[in-house]
Amino acid sequence: MPRNLYDADHEEFRATVAEFVERSLKPRAEEMLAAHSIDREVWREAGKQGLFGLDIPEEFGGMGADDYRFNAISAEELSKFNAAVSSCFGIHSDVCPPYIVDLGTDEQKQRWLPGMASGELICAIAMTEPSGGSDLAALKTTAVRDGDDWVMNGSKTFITNGYQCDLVIVAARTDVTKGPKGITLFMVEDGMPGFSRGRKLDKVGQEESDTAELFFENVRVPDANRIGPEGMGFIAMMQRLPQERVGAAVSNVAHAKQILLETIDYAKERKAFGQPIGSFQHNKFKIAELVTAIEVAEAYVDDCIEAHAQQKLSAVDAAKAKWWSAQVQNDVLDECVQLHGGYGFMNEYRVARAWRDARVTKIWAGSNEIMKELIGRDLGL
Q: pTM of the full predicted structure?
């Protein structure tokens, strides 16, 4: 099916991202795997190509694109390379900037946005805690007012970019009596006394991504680092989660689609019993099912991208896109492993890594079960 979502300007940007992948990412693929992180030189190169400034106004060093379709193209091309880089870059460029652009003061924008756009300042966002995953309203990290500062205590876990980030947006409880209305957002900066990181977490997949625990022990955060009004952090997160979830959906589909295309090529070349394995009726029918599943998922996600570009995407529709794309991604990649046979279980094959990398997509950005809960509530159930 032809996609009618993008115009010539979008496709020109796609070529830029694809060239960056070929020139800067693919030659470093094994290096990133071994280091369990993305070298800072790569971050700066991505910044020079404009990958990080799409949501940042030009006056603060960004592209000021104001068109989510450019974000989607970046996510698609990066996901074709691998899920981990797409995730790390997406958190930095797609998830974090809107908090500062929409809620930050002019001083905060001048202080942080140019470095984020250039890739000099790597950003993370810290919501999830060891005691609770998707239940953001129950977070326990606290920030207590002390003069012009806030004293922060607590911990976060599973934080993408957490090990090498220069900036981290932290959700903390500033009023223990107000539930969700007692949560405030702060920018914690590298080097603040009491702010430390645990080890890089040993994950099943996405080894290129540095994922870490963060610890806050009497960290004095200036009130000038508070993002948005006191007590409005939970609402701010809920308002911006649809962008994170549609971004996840874009990556899920693009990731699975690329590996499926590579699997089709493999099925044409690999022979058994004197003929290509793709010519066997079962495999031919299976591949037909997988192609159809990807194209149907892609069509719905494309509609969500367009709706979000017009600021019309609802939280419920974003939840649908997130859980469904994650399920399709995992189903498709599992079948791709099967079509590769024993080679599909070898880490040297992209299909094996992709299969492992994809498993987390049914958990993060709100688990698939939470997404279904949101959809069910919207139906009055």
A: 0.96
Helix 281-309 × helix 68-81 angle, to 10°: 150
Residue 76 annotated to the active site: no
Encoded amino acid at 37, one letter? S
Rounded to an integer, what distance in angstroms lies between the CA atom of residue 249 and that of residue 358?
12
| Cα–Cα distance for residue pair 286/276, rounded to 1 Å | 15
Average pLDDT along the chain, 381 residues, taken 10 residues at a time: 93 98 97 95 97 96 94 98 98 97 98 98 96 78 98 97 97 95 98 96 96 98 98 96 96 98 98 97 98 98 97 97 98 98 96 98 95 98 97
Sign of CA dihedral 114, 117, 121, 126: positive
Structure token pair of residue 53: 């400034």
Distance from C-alpha of 342 to C-alpha of 323, rounded to nearest angstrom: 29
Residues 269 and 277: their CA atoms lie apart, in Å, by: 8
Asked if 242 and 312 touch (Cβ cutoff 8 Å), the reply is no
Rg (CA), the chain: 21
**Residue of 182, 184, 191 lying closest to 169 (CA atoms):** 184
- Whole-angstrom distance, CA of residue 89 vs CA of residue 45: 12
Q: Which of 77, 129, 189, 244 is catalytic?
A: 244
Do residues 358 and 252 touch, judged by C-beta distance below 8 A? Answer: yes
Q: Half-sphere exposure of 62 toward its Cβ, with a 13 Å CA cutoff?
A: 23
